[in-house]
Amino acid sequence: MVFGTLIQTKLALIKIIHTAIWIFFNFVIFYMLYAAIANKLDIWLWISYGFVFLEGLILLAFKSHCPLNLMARKYTSSTNVNFDIYLPDWLAKYTKLIYTTIFVIVITITFYQLLN
User: Fold this and answer.
1) Cα–Cα distance for residue pair 77/74, rounded to 1 Å
2) Residue 15's pLDDT band (boundaries 50, 70, 90)?
3) Closest of 107, 115, 108, 96 to residue 46, by C-alpha
4) pLDDT (tens digit, 9 = 90+) per residue, 39-64?
5) Average pLDDT in the 101-116 region?
């Protein structure tokens, strides 16, 4: 019983950390969208680009998986797409597509703003 509780605690901790990082990246990506649209090409926009590129490198290094996803997999056999994060299934399933699309829009607007 204690072992099962420890596993559940570790999985919950991973899910909390993963969700907190997801929330942080929401602030980052939506700040980037705001900054690009408002032509506010400040240091925070470029720092945000750095965060997103770092995240991209990590995903690339782990074959399109978040390391927290791989850690959580050790503690569950769940087949749900949100087994490693506190998000609704649909959002966990499409989060990469949604945020990659927003990021491409941000890049496009940023280039437009730089060229004008």
Assistant:
1) 8
2) very high
3) 107
4) 999 999 999 999 999 999 999 999 99
5) 97
Which value, to the nearest 10 degrees, does the dihedral of the CA atoms of residues 84, 85, 89, 94 take? Answer: -100
Give 15-20 contacts, CB < 8 A, sequence gap 24+: 15/72, 15/84, 15/85, 15/86, 16/86, 17/68, 18/66, 18/68, 18/69, 18/72, 18/84, 18/85, 18/86, 19/85, 19/86, 19/87
Number of domains in the chain: 1
Residue 16: its H or E element: helix 2-37
Nearest C-alpha neighbor of 28 from the set 53, 3, 2: 53
Cβ contacts of 10 within 8 Å, gap of 6 or more: 75
